[in-house]
Amino acid sequence: MKRLLLMGLLLTAIFNPTTQGALASSAYGALTIEGDNLTVEVRGVGVFNTPITLVLPVGNYTVSAEGQVKLEAKVFVNASKLVRVEFSTVEPDELVEGNLTILGVKVTYDWWKHYPKYSSRPSLGIPRGCGGAWSPFYYIDRPLPMTLEDAGDTIAKLTINNTITPCYLRSGIQDINGKLEYIFYTIAGPFGTSGIALKDTSFLTPLSSVEVSSDVELVNGYLYNVSSTSMVTPFTIILPVVTQDVYNVTGTTTDGDTITINHIPKTDTYNLSVGLNHTLVTAVVKPRPWEKYGISYSLRTALELIRVREESVELYGVRVNTTPAASFEVVGNAKAAGVSPGTIYLPEGNYTLTAFTNNSGVTVNFSVPETRELNLKLKPLPARLFFNVTPSNASVFIDGKPVNNRSVETSPGRHFIHVTAPGHVAENLSVLLAPNESRVLKIGLKPLPVLSVTTVPSGALVSIGNKTCRSPCMLALEPGRYTVDVSLEGYMNASKTAYLEPGKVVNVTITLEKVRKNAGTSNESMNSDTPTKKLTKIPAPAPSSGRNSYGTTHKLLALVVVILLTGIALRRR
C-alpha cells in the first residue's frame, strides 16, 4: 500500500493548483527514467515502472531502484531541461569482492558531488608509535560519535566516543596482530580525539582491519561518507568491532584513578565506500573481531550502472478547464497531473487526458504543441472493472475497501487496487479509468519466496528479523533484502545477506568457525564470547602530541569540559 500511496502523491506533488496559473514553463523541467523493467521511486513524487517521463517543478530529486544492488541517483531538474537517468543492473559480486561479510551494496550518483582521483599519494609524515595519530576533525555523529584518525600514510583508524581503545604495534606501525602497547579511555568529538592512558581495564575493544583497494587507484575511501587523508586506495582501515552491548566497564588510570563507562553499544557493521567523479560505491560490511580482511571495488563497472545526462527540452503550456472543477491526469510522451482550472506544461507529443470528480468524468486525446487549451464537460458515466485473479480465494480491495473479486462498478479516475491471498505476495497496482470504460484486470499472485538456510555444523540458531529456526530450516518471507544471523555455542557468530524475489527459493549456506582467542596476545586475549576479561600491567604511554599527557586531575577536568561541549554540539545538531 505504501507504493500506492506514494503514487497518489503525484496529484499534489507535481502541480500545485494554487500556483500553477502563475507559473510559466520556465518553472518546470522533465525527468526521464530508463531501465530494464524496473520499479523506481522518485522521492516525494511517486513509484513508477520504467521507462517513464515526468514533468516536474525545478528542484532536486532522488530516484532509487531496489534490487540485488540498490541504485540511487540524486539529480537536479533545471528549467526547460530534460534530465535522463538510465539504470543498469549487475550482481553484487561484480561490484564488490572481499573475504568479509558483505550485507549489501549500493551505487549512488550525486549531481552535486565530485569524488576526486589523485595523481600521487599524499605524504603525512606521521611518526611511528601510538601517539602519532593525526585527527583533523573527521567527526561523525551517525550512528555514534566517532572520529577517523590518520595512523599512518596509508592507515586510518576509527575511534568511538566513550570507549576503551587499544593500540597494537608491529615494528612501530599500528597493526592489530602486533603487540599491545597502550590502552586509552577515548573521547571523540568535533574537537578531535582525547585519550587518558590506562593500566588495566575490564573490557578491551576488539579491533579488525580491512585493506581497501579498487580497480581505479588513488581514489578516496569513505566511512559513512567521511574520509581521512590516509584513505586513498589502496589503504587499510582499523575498525572497532563490539559484537554485543557491554555495560559497567571500568579502568584504572596510570595515576591510580578509576574510570567507569556505563554502556558501550554494539558496533560491528559499517558503511565502507569508494568514489570517483559523481559515483560512490558503498558496501555494508560486518567484520569479526581480531580478523584481517581485504575488500576490492570495481569502480569502472559502477560508473556504467547509472548514466545521467541533461538536454534541452521545450515545454508548452496547455490550459485545462472543466465543468465542474476536477482532478485530471495526463499520460503519453510524458506524465503530469493537476486540478482544473489550471495550466500544465508538456513536451511535444501525443497525450490522453482523463478528468474526474465523484462519479463523473471525461477523456480526451490531444497533441502538443497544437493544443493550447482544453474546455471539457464531465459526464456522470461510471466505469466497470472485471477481475481475473489467482488464486481463486484472493481478496480484492479498491481504495482500501473490500469488493467482489469478480467485478465492480466504480467511478472514473485513478483507483488503487490491493490483492492479497494467504501464502502469496500481495499485489498493488493503480488504474486510471475513463468514463463508461470496461476493463479486465488479470492478476496472478506469486507464492511467497522461501529462504532455505543450512549451516556447517547444523543445529545453529538462525535469526531473520523477528523469526528464528534451527538449521537446516526454511522460512517463507515477504520479498526484500534480509540479513541472516547465525549463532551456535562454541562458534563465532556469522551473518549473510539474501535478496528474496516473489516465487523463488534462495539457498544460503553458512560455515561457522570455532571461537578462538586473539593470537599472540596472551595477557590481553579477547573474542566475541568473552568481552570482559581483566587486563593488567599495561605500560603507560610516553607523552605525545597526539594524546594527552597531563596528570589525571587535569585530564578529568578537561574531559568534563569536552563532554559539556560535545553535549552542546549534539543538541545543536
Largest sheet: 8 strands, mixed
Percent of residues in beta strands: over 45%
- Tell me the distance between the termini: 33 Å
Overall shape: elongated
**Would you identify the regions where 5 or more consecutive residues have pLDDT less than 50?**
1-23, 518-537, 539-557, 559-563, 568-573
Rg of Cα set = 29 Å
The tally of domains stands at 4
What is the count of β-strands?
46
Helix content: under 10%
Mean pLDDT: 85
**Count of helical regions:** 4
Lateral strand order in the biggest sheet: 3-2-5-6-9-23-22-18
Judged by helices, strands and strand pairing, the structural class is mainly beta
Protein name: S-layer-like array protein
Organism: Thermococcus kodakarensis (strain ATCC BAA-918 / JCM 12380 / KOD1)
InterPro entries: PEGA
Labels describing this entry:
573 residues, mainly beta, Immunoglobulin-like, 4 domains, eight-stranded mixed sheet, seven-stranded mixed sheet, 4 helices, 46 strands, 7% helix, 51% strand, elongated, disordered N terminus
Short summary:
The protein is mostly beta strands and 573 residues long.
List the helices and strands and how they pair.
Blueprint: H1 2-8, H2 10-13, E1 28-34, E2 39-42, E3 46-49, E4 52-57, E5 59-65, E6 70-77, E7 81-87, E8 96-98, E9 101-110, E10 134-140, E11 146-152, E12 155-160, E13 163-170, E14 173-174, E15 179-189, E16 192-201, E17 207-214, E18 221-223, E19 235-240, E20 246-253, E21 258-264, E22 270-276, E23 279-286, E24 292-297, H3 299-305, E25 306-312, E26 316-323, E27 327-332, E28 336-339, E29 342-346, E30 349-357, E31 360-368, E32 373-377, E33 383-390, E34 395-398, E35 401-403, E36 407-410, E37 413-420, E38 427-433, E39 438-444, E40 450-456, E41 461-464, E42 467-470, E43 473-476, E44 480-487, E45 494-500, E46 505-511, H4 552-572
Parallel strand pairs: 1-7, 6-9, 12-19, 17-24, 26-32, 33-39, 40-46
Antiparallel strand pairs: 1-4, 2-3, 2-5, 5-6, 7-25, 8-24, 9-23, 10-11, 11-12, 13-14, 13-15, 15-16, 16-20, 17-19, 18-22, 20-21, 22-23, 26-29, 27-28, 27-30, 30-31, 33-36, 34-35, 34-37, 37-38, 40-43, 41-42, 41-44, 44-45
InterPro entries: PEGA (IPR013229)
Region (Disordered): 519-547
Domain PEGA: 449-515
